[in-house]
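Data availability (excerpt). The following record was deposited with the supplementary files.
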Amino acid sequence: MKKTSSMNMKTPIILTVIGVFAFSNAFAAKNQDSEKTISRKIDRNSYAPKEPSKHAMGVGIGQTFLLGDFEGQGDDSITIDAIYTYEASHSFDLMLSAHVSKHETKNKSIELFGLSASIKAKVFDFDSFSPYFLGGLGFYQPQETRFNGVSTETTERKMVFGFNVGAGTDLKLNEDYTLGMMGVLHKPFNVKQDERTDVRGMYFKLLMALSYNF
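Predicted structure:
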């Protein structure tokens, strides 16, 4: 009788220990599953840019077309741009460009200076081929030499703000060099003149660029 009574007293204790042990194992397994799920979400949401901090220096050569009120002020001609590109991520690049050119026709001319910053948004990457759109802002300084019927007069040289939009494509030749083609429309804001008509207009650049990557 004593043995039976002792066994009856121990049974709840044993069951309690088994229950606590089973609950602890279940809780630990649930925590492990939760940690794995969170880890997978973090891995899925984390973003690692392709080839971060990639730089490129290049030269663009092509035709500059005068548009708007600039048209007729000079002849369209071949011009050169200096281009720097920073690959911020797999989808977006920062492009800085600078250009200086002079366009003449008869007794009229226009000088163009531009320093612009643009964001290149890549549409997709197909092998080594990457088409993109771009847009940005910059500083411009157009200056005209006009013929008033009797003599020529030169407008005041002033720096103004402006914007640019365009599209293009890059073809990565190898690890060091990239060949690109782009069309960019530059629109400086009007240059106010004290005693003459404001300088206003825009121009379009169609360029082929070769860049060195480092």
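Summary of structural features: The first strand starts at residue 54 and ends at 67.
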